[in-house]
Amino acid sequence: MGFHRWSSMWWNSDSGPREFFSPSYPSTYPNYANCAWFLQTGELQVVSLNFTFVDLESGWDFIRVYDGPTAQHSLLGSVTGNQRATFNSSSRYMTVVFSTDHSVTRQGFRAEWAFIAAPMCKDRCGSSNSRCSCESSCERYGRCCHDYYDYCYHVTPTPVPACGGSLYGSGSISSPYYPSYYHDNAYCVWQLSAPAGQNVFLSFQDLDLDHCCNCDYVNVYDGPSTPSRLIGKLCQNSSSNLDFQSFSSYMTVMFRSDYSGVGRGFKAYFSSSLNQNTGPEEAEAKTEDKE
Asked: Which residues does the UniProt record annotate as the domain CUB (predicted)?
């Protein structure tokens, strides 16, 4: 058996420093490391944590960030490999756990943290943001902003905007409330269609989703419904392959968000093309020539 290490540190709003590191950083961390950091803010504040350097054995050594004072609270996200990420708590507390396996070590990580003003619900009932919610659903899922019961508990919830639908030819689609934050538990499906014999071309111009790729995401399907062939999945870390083209005259786009953590969402433009190798501008030119 290898060497097992457990260490823990606790910081509150009156103590420093404002950064912490993996064991032995910037030298390599040990095998079988198991370290925890507990962060606590003052009243009406939340924790903002930013990993400025990450070099871990990808898929085997992890940093896990929890939204509360223990590792039994909900997972905000995990980091491995060379990922960099920023996390915000929904309350005064955050827990960070670093664990490594029995082999292969790297340089580790450096993290900076700050205490920032907690989001408020005043004049925002029925909406949500990346750290907490002023929607009535927050009572069920435990993500209410600190002043939710002062301003929103007896307020009629703001109706959730309709999303999805069947669209033809060309136009745009966007997440609910875009460019403001979309709401928790969103589910939208758009069916895009082109004239017979043409294909659908879709391009995402803006994308800002919650950091959890299995929580909030956009799926693109080559066909008239979600059982059609999946040709792409977009989430927060998607920075390439933002253009899609169907092989038929239909394309389906599905957007889903979970019960916690939101972003500004997305906006995408769609149009028709004559075949899979022809872009939308060329397709329009050929259509005009035929006329």
From this structure: 7-116, 152-273
Domain 164-274 = CATH 2.40.50.140: no
- Read off the pLDDT of each residue in 257-263 and give the average, rounded to a whole number: 79
Q: Residue 97 and residue 68: Cα distance in Å, rounded?
A: 12
Tokens representing residue 286 in the block: 């050929």
pLDDT digits (tens, 9 = 90+) for 49-72: 999 999 999 999 999 999 888 888
23 backbone dihedrals φ, ψ, rounded to 5°:
-55, 135
pLDDT single digits (tens) 92-113: 889 999 999 999 999 999 999 8
Question: Domain locations in the chain?
Answer: 18-117, 164-274
- Domain 18-117 homologous superfamily, CATH: Spermadhesin, CUB domain (2.60.120.290)
Structure tokens at 51: 């990993």
Distances 31 to 94, 100, 125, 256, 277 between C-alpha atoms, Å: 25, 6, 48, 38, 51
CA distance 203 to 54: 31
The gap between the terminal CA atoms of the chain, to the nearest Å, is 77
The answer to whether the peptide bond before residue 26 is cis (omega within 30 degrees of 0) is yes
How many C-beta atoms lie closer than 10 Å to residue 103's C-beta?
A: 11
The rounded distance, in Å, linking the Cα atoms of 64 and 77 is 6
Which residue in this structure is represented by tokens 């929103």?
152
167 CA to centre of own chain: 26
Give the Cα separation of 248 and 227 in Å (integer).
15
Q: How far apart are CA 128 and CA 134, in angstroms?
A: 6
β-pairing, 229-234 vs 217-222, is: antiparallel
Q: What type of residue sits at position 12?
A: N
Give the other-Cβ count within 10 Å of 164's Cβ. 17
